[in-house]
Amino acid sequence: MTETLGSSTGSAANGSAARGRRSKADGPGGLKLERLYTTDGVHPYDEVTWERRDVVLTNWRDGTINFEQRGVEFPSTWSINATNIVTSKYFRGAVGTPTRETSLKQIIDRVVTAYTNSGRENSYFATPKDEEIFAHELTWMLLHQVFAFNSPVWFNVGTSSPQQVSACFILAVDDTMDAILNWYREEGLIFKGGSGAGLNLSRIRSSKELLSSGGTASGPVSFMRGADASAGTIKSGGATRRAAKMVVLDVDHPDIVEFVETKVKEEDKIRALRDAGFDMDLGGEDIVSVQYQNANNSVRVSDEFMRAVESGSEFGLRARQTGEVIETVDARELFTKINTAAWACADPGIQYDDIINDWHTCPESGRINASNPCSEYMHLDNSSCNLASLNLMKFLSDEGTFDAATFKKAVEFVITAMDISICFADFPTQPIAETTRAFRQLGIGYANLGALLMATGHAYDSEGGRALAAAISSLMNGTAYKRSAELAGIVGPYDGYARNADAHKRVIRKHAAANDQIRTYGGNDAETLKLATAVWAETIATGEKNGYRNAQASVLAPTGTIGLMMDCDTTGIEPDLALVKFKKLVGGGSMQIVNQTVPRALAALGYQAEQVEAIVEFIAQHGHVVGAPGLKNVHYSVFDCAMGERSIAPMGHVRMMAAVQPFISGAISKTVNMPEDASVDDVAEIYMQGWKMGLKALAIYRDNCKVGQPLSASSKNKDSADDAAKASAAAPSVESHTPVRRRLPKKRPSQTVSFTVGGAEGYLTTGSYPDDGLGEVFIKLGKQGSTLAGVMDAFSIAVSVGLQYGIPLESYVAKFTNLRFEPAGMTDDPDIRIATSVMDYLFRRIALDYLPVDARAELGIFSAEERTAQVSSSYSSYDAEDAEDAVEELRTSVDATPVVRPAVEGGSAKPAADLGGRKAGSSTELLEMVIGKSADAPLCFTCGTKMRPSGACYVCEGCGSTSGCS
Q: Would you say 674 and 701 are in contact if contact means Cβ atoms under 8 Å apart?
């Protein structure tokens, strides 16, 4: 970098530095803007209908209130879910105080005002009228969910907090103890602020090299242990996510095998220690034995290595200081170890080093060595990127065509605002502040691609779908760089541009050349590509004259929380999760709906209104389109989703990424999901094709490869159901209005189970009737005479008396499982690997011992043996009669599902029935009920709801929390 601009915490200093530079480029006099969405003389707020709503977020399992704010003001067009997310996550001020924000107007105003004021102070606008247009257009687009800034903008801008606007950070570490300790410190500061960071450890000497003192170096993997402990302790102080981090190691590092196998060995260790009775809770005393769980790991592979894999030749591992080869390995053998580890535990991912640096705009200032935690931001060490994403469905016309011209103009406004933010932004460290201000990296992107493709009648895995996605991405990136070049002529290029001008212009030409290679199939893609081609020509001409304001312009982020804020059906580049969704309702409660994009897709494919209604009705009942009345087989692929009856093949995800990657400055946050029966060779093929197709990064996830993620039964066991019916018939009848206590005989069978939950040890004794019905429970927990022991004794008596009076055991299990309080964590019970509390464990154990399989299936409780049998049976062959019975049972179950299907006309929704009495708390859990298989998604650490995939991360539909970047 050529200049240090201001401090990392002083907005005034940032502004003065920017003003100092601006004097060199005062000539053009600022941007001349034209209105896109707004009307002169009419404020955007006056064009919408506002209403007051109560936001009360409850835990759907036990009804406890997680958050409450009543009387908040939102447009009537915003969904309840978007209202809940914005109110609970983005409103500033203590709840219940006069300083608390109460209206969407307030948060939009504080953000837009800050951007507009900074734009005026730094001479971005030609006249006060242009400034007003900018403010109104930004307000209108935010108000109508056309785009959203990343979460740090909503947290910090316009508040008394430091004005941090970046969500993504890349750090650096050298081969010195001072640098390593500073890495721990900087990473901790970023986690404390609620963001994530990534770095490459390849500069650190391997454990096979000598120190200057004559001893042997520790190696990067040993230092990862300390950083992992730090991340696990901090777990982010931010409002939306835990500590997210990425650790990268070059494939030619001598410790590469140790790095690759770290998580595989830890997974094995978790199993072994858990089964041996050790306390493996995240806060337990034995957790120090399990490491590396707080980071995503990626191997940075070179073209040299991949070619060696292809040819089956040897590959040299090099000393970090001298570069000499100190060990030679078989390239295919090493590649197999990488693939085997990814197959076993989803880590490591792959980053393709030569491809990344071939598209690098600033090679004279340093290589690109690492990425942020979700792998979409890749640039210089000690840098950051602020993100914003556009909602592609907002550009779909009523006629079903993509409005490329409006999209282009919207990108111009958004990228202008993003660049302005760097003028006033604060950063967590001085090196990051200096690099970001000198190179001004931006990350414009989009969400809802999957919904757009479906609504326009394109299969996600199709040539037409990829062509449209590529054309849109090319138009977005070309427009962003065009505006960047225009801004360079007004307020000057980025400080590092002069040194990197040739390289930057070469990359721009590569983008334009890739645009010329897009093959169109008529309609949306052809018109969009035509405009993109014209834009690239203007971009190159303007860039030759002015240079560029930004070293990087675009990424494709997960768009987790902000995707919910914009009411997007799909996130980032992802396809739809499933055709049936989970929707929150006004006044509380929820229901299932068929995706609103399905009727639009059917209309785009030429189906008549009556046909559309029949097909939607079928989807509402079955959750898929296979066998839908009147739907042509050739159109099935349009409705393929990430999961379900017809899921997109893994290579289909890779092909979509490859179509879009040439038009993204950074990379793409996406995980390629693979079925459980995928082989190591299948993983190898994905990683090899990712390299050949020109991707920058790729990660896979094989279903159920992690500990504690079993399948759940899709249909009930008939024999168990019959047994349950017999047991029910044999039980004495009890008048509902006259409870009768059925006492246990003096001598009755009983059993005692010792248990450990999160370090707490105890004993569970249960006594049963001679006919094998549970009749009493005794729980020993805590020292004799302690308050805890007394409370547990009283609780045991209450439960026992209730059982003897006829309260169904299922009721107790449903009430007390999933309660969340300490102690919690790993247990010593092989059937119950982790418990959210002692109560959760105890009643799961009781259910396993006393409830039939079908009753437990309703509650999602299975033994280890049953889970193993389910996995085996799910992939075994069935005879025709078994298959017919299974289909009939599934149909019977799903026919009773409470589904709301959108009417073909008017957009109203009609309710239907309940899914066998079962309830879902999120779209992921609803999907699990339909397909009968675990979605392998984690529980939200804030509200306990099962999250859904969002790029390479996860997002909670209940509260908006994410596991990575927003």
A: yes
- 208 lies in the same domain as 230: yes
Better-scored residue on pLDDT, 277 or 20: 277
The dihedrals phi and psi of 443, each to the nearest 5 degrees, come to -140, 70
Query: What is the distance between the alpha carbons of residues 303 and 771, in angstroms, rounded to a whole number?
Result: 69
pLDDT tens digits for 143-167? Answer: 999 999 999 999 999 999 899 999 8
Active site residue 376: yes
- Angstrom CA distances, 709 to 221, 355, 635, 869, 935, stand at 27, 35, 33, 14, 9
Output the CA–CA distances (angstroms, integers) from residue 705 to 248, 642, 679, in the order listed. 22, 18, 12
Q: Are strands 760-768 and 774-781 parallel, antiparallel or unpaired?
A: antiparallel
For the chain, what is the domain count? 3
Token pair belonging to 669: 């946050």
Exposed / middle / buried, residue 919 (Cβ in 10 Å: 0-12, 13-18, 19+): middle
C-alpha triplet 294, 298, 303: angle, nearest 5°: 175
Give strand pairing partners of 297: 247
Which is catalytic among the residues 150, 294, 369, 372?
Answer: 372
Catalytic residue among 376, 486, 776, 925: 376
CA–CA gap between residue 59 and residue 52 (Å, rounded)? 23
Question: Is 488 in the same domain as 359?
Answer: no
Measuring CA to CA, which residue among 401, 389, 445 is closest to residue 564? Answer: 389
Which residue out of 168, 345, 362, 374 is catalytically annotated?
374
pLDDT in tens, 515-524: 999 999 877 8
Q: Is 156 a catalytic residue?
A: no
Measured CA to CA, the distance from residue 478 to residue 516 in angstroms comes to 13
Residue whose token pair is 């839908």: 628
Average pLDDT score over residue span 248-272: 90
- The CA-atom distances, in angstroms, between 946 and each of 50, 447, 483, 575, 618 are 32, 21, 41, 19, 26
Which residues are CB-contacts of 160 (< 8 A; sequence separation ≥ 6)?
none
Task: Write out the residue range of the structural domain in which residue 252 sits.
Answer: 172-363
**Side chain identity at residue 134, one-letter code:** F
Most confident of 180-184, 589-593, 661-665, 720-724: 661-665
Quote the CA–CA distance of 2 and 498 in Å, as a whole number: 10
pTM: 0.77
426 & 540 share domain: yes
Considering the domain architecture, whether residues 180 and 106 belong to the same structural domain is answered as no
Same domain flag for 143 and 260: no
- Catalytic site includes residue 374: yes
d(CA 871, CA 713): 9
